[in-house]
Structures are given as structure tokens and as C-alpha cells.
Amino acid sequence: MWRWRIISKEELRVNEEIRTKEVRLVSDTGEQLGIMSPREALRIAAESGLDLVEVAPNAKPPVCKIMDYGKYKYEQSKREREARKKQHVINVKEVKLRPNIEDHDFEVKARNAVRFLEDGDKVKVTIMFRGRELSHPELGRELLLRVAAYVKDLANVEKDPKLEGKNMTMILSPKQN
């Protein structure tokens, strides 16, 4: 009794699911066994107690390999888990300032930016303008450049200061060691 399944791009065809006239067979040791019918290739795989797996379905003729499919899938998932462990997600932390900020408050905000950069996160520094403050954007630009100077040995300016509506923003990214 045949059961039909829809096979995703990541999933490989195994044993009776291989539906071509002929296949190129590769043994479990990696040696070429030649071109033959899938039925004969399946018989050879069954004799060795392993599965017939289609590894290159787009080749002419498709390439099938004799292997332990369960072990192969387990090792594949193990590799994917390891790759996910090694990934580092970069977050963007935000530090908000006002144009007429006091020196101590500025240093507190700048130290927060330093801490975020040391953790490997990007920092978005935002100057919020209200009312008439918007008529002097150069004050905001000076403040952003002051922040950039404060963290120059830890960060690169990824995006220069830019006025967007009532806010002026700059993005800093940590330097690669």
C-alpha cells in the first residue's frame, strides 16, 4: 500500500519515495556504484541494512546515497542546535536626552551607553526637542557628537546625527575586537 506525502525542500526522499527511472548510487563509504534503477539500488541498501536517501534530487540522474537515515537526521538536528547556540542577537538599546541636559545627567546617560556597548548591543541616542528648542538643532548635533566622543574607543558611529521630526537620532555600534 503506497502512501503519498508532500515533501518539503529540506526533507529528503527515502527508500520507496524515490520515483525516477534511474539513479546514480553512492555507497556509505563514498564510492560510486554507478547508474541503476531505484529498485536495484534499494535492494543493495537493504542488503547492507541501511536506507537509500536521495541527496541530490536535481542532478541528472538524481544522486542517491546508502546511509542510516535516522542517524543522519539526528546529526543534522545536532548541527542546527549548535549553530543556533553560536548566534548572537544584537539588540538596539536607546538612550534619550534633552538639548539642555545637565553635565551629571549627561554622564549618567553616557555611562549607560557605554554599558550597552560593552554588552555587545547597538545604541540609538535620541535627542528629543520640544517647542522652540527645535529652532536650534545645532545644540542637539553638538550633544550627539559629545556622546560619540565619550564612547569613541568602544563604538563606531553607524548612522550620523539626523533630524527626524522632533527628534534627532544617531546610532552607535560596538567596535569589533
From TrEMBL:
Gene3D superfamilies: Translation initiation factor 3 (IF-3), C-terminal domain, Translation initiation factor 3 (IF-3), N-terminal domain
Protein's GO biological process: ribosome disassembly
Main location: cytoplasm
PROSITE patterns per UniProt: IF3 (PS00938)
GO CC, one annotated term: cytosol
Domain of life assignment: Bacteria
Translation initiation factor 3 C-terminal domain location: 90-175
Keyword Cytoplasm: yes
Location(s) in or outside the cell: Cytoplasm
UniProt GO MF annotations: ribosome binding; translation initiation factor activity
Pfam families: IF3_C, IF3_N
UniProt xrefs under SUPFAM superfamilies: Translation initiation factor IF3, C-terminal domain, Translation initiation factor IF3, N-terminal domain
Keywords noted in UniProt: Cytoplasm, Initiation factor, Protein biosynthesis
Residues covered by the Translation initiation factor 3 N-terminal domain: 14-83
UniProt similarity note: Belongs to the IF-3 family.
Function description: IF-3 binds to the 30S ribosomal subunit and shifts the equilibrium between 70S ribosomes and their 50S and 30S subunits in favor of the free subunits, thus enhancing the availability of 30S subunits on which protein synthesis initiation begins.
Subunit composition and interactions: Monomer.
Protein name, as recorded: Translation initiation factor IF-3
Organism expressing this protein natively: Thermanaerosceptrum fracticalcis
Gene transcribed to yield this protein: infC
